[in-house]
Amino acid sequence: MNKIGMIGLGNMGSPMAENLLKKEGSIIVYNRTKSKCDPFVAKGAVAADTVKEVAEKADIIILSLPGPVQVEEVVSELIENGKEGQIIIDTSTVSPGLNRKMAESAKEKGITYIDVPVSGGPAGAANGKLSLMIGASEEEFISLGLKEYTDTIGDKYFFMNKRGNGNAIKIINNFMSFSAQVINGEALAMAEALGISMDDFYTVVTKSSGNNAILNAKMNKVKNEDYKPGFALDLVVKDLELARQLCQENEIANFTLNTALQMYRIAQAKGCGKEDSSAVIRTIREVEKHIS
Ligand code: NAD
């Protein structure tokens, strides 16, 4: 029986670990802030003290880490201390280039590394309803026997056939979603300036052609001014920077991306980085006021 390791117990990693623990009865958990392991240990998980320990004990290792720096550090350590036949499933959003580099160096040691970035937020992870964007073919993924584990976190599989292409489509998706969130914020600020209530704004546009997924997903957070992070604003800046980097490397023009990125950067500079991405509305309102 495979031993499962889970590294990174944040907003996404925690519900993933919860579901894997339910399925397996026991898993190995590791997080930089060790206390995040405690609730899982109380339910039967084993906490590792180091990444090396996870590499030595687990057969399949699932990662949910903030970004490229942490992924490179952790995966390098896993490869260094790992053994042939191990599999690393990386659900973090990082650059396709980093995914390919990690996959290549893993392969030299007989370890399989696959990018499986996700979409659907902490609620999607908890309900097992995430979209999974997989940097491998369906044939490879199934033959490795990974589906029984990923089924605990996601139910929409998209096989992108090549290492890194899971993250390529994920970054494109997040460019769309987080740019739309800036448009939604500007639209709300317009409505407010024109004397239209927030309730009327949402009632009309969610039933009309202005509707979009992130408008629905964040509506209650904005209404209740509840900016506790589901998806931290710092991570939006990271994802849009990844999109900018992809465009630069591939000589792709992208105008809206830059505008959205600057708005989130201003929000970050104003101290909203640890809040939910929807907190960008506060910066938009301030900027609009300043201009008028
Ligand atoms: P998070 O910051 O809440 O969690 C990251 C966790 O990793 C934290 O618990 C942190 O302590 C831990 N960590 C950091 N460095 C570490 C290291 N070197 N070793 C071990 N643990 C370490 O972030 P999140 O919101 O859970 O996102 C995780 C990844 O999933 C990111 O790449 C993000 O872009 C992506 N993602 C997030 C969402 C979302 O809605 N939050 C949705 C889709 C994808």
Descriptors for this entry?
single chain, alpha/beta, Rossmann fold, N-(1-d-carboxylethyl)-l-norvaline Dehydrogenase, domain 2, 2 domains, 6-stranded parallel sheet, 3-stranded mixed sheet, 9 strands, 12% strand
Question: Secondary-structure map with pairings?
Answer:
Layout: E1 4-7, H1 13-24, E2 28-30, H2 38-41, E3 46-47, H3 51-57, E4 60-63, H4 68-81, E5 87-90, H5 96-107, E6 112-115, E7 118-119, H6 121-127, E8 130-134, H7 138-143, H8 147-150, E9 154-159, H9 165-193, H10 198-205, H11 213-224, H12 233-249, H13 255-272, H14 280-291
Helix pairs in contact: 1-6, 3-4, 4-5, 9-12, 9-13, 9-14, 12-13, 13-14
Task: Characterize the structure shown.
The chain is an alpha/beta fold. The protein folds into two domains: 4-163, Rossmann fold, CATH 3.40.50.720; 168-291, N-(1-d-carboxylethyl)-l-norvaline Dehydrogenase, domain 2. Helices cover 55% and strands 12% of the residues. The chain has helices at 13-24, 38-41, 51-57, 68-81, 96-107, 121-127, 138-143, 147-150, 165-193, 198-205, 213-224, 233-249, 255-272, 280-291, and strands at 4-7, 28-30, 46-47, 60-63, 87-90, 112-115, 118-119, 130-134, 154-159. A six-stranded parallel β-sheet has the order 3-2-1-4-5-6, sandwiched between helices. Strand 5 (87-90), helix 5 and strand 6 form a beta-alpha-beta unit. Helix 1 (13-24) runs parallel beside helix 6 (121-127), helix 4 runs parallel beside helix 5 (96-107) and helix 9 (165-193) packs across helix 13 (255-272). It starts with a strand and ends with a helix. Bound molecules: nicotinamide-adenine-dinucleotide. Nicotinamide-adenine-dinucleotide is lined by residues 7-13, 30-33, 36, 64-67, 70, 73-74, 92-93, 118-119, 121-122, 230-232, 235. Residues 7-13, 30-33, 36, 64-67, 70, 73-74, 92-93, 118-119, 121-122, 230-232, 235 line the site of nicotinamide-adenine-dinucleotide (NAD).
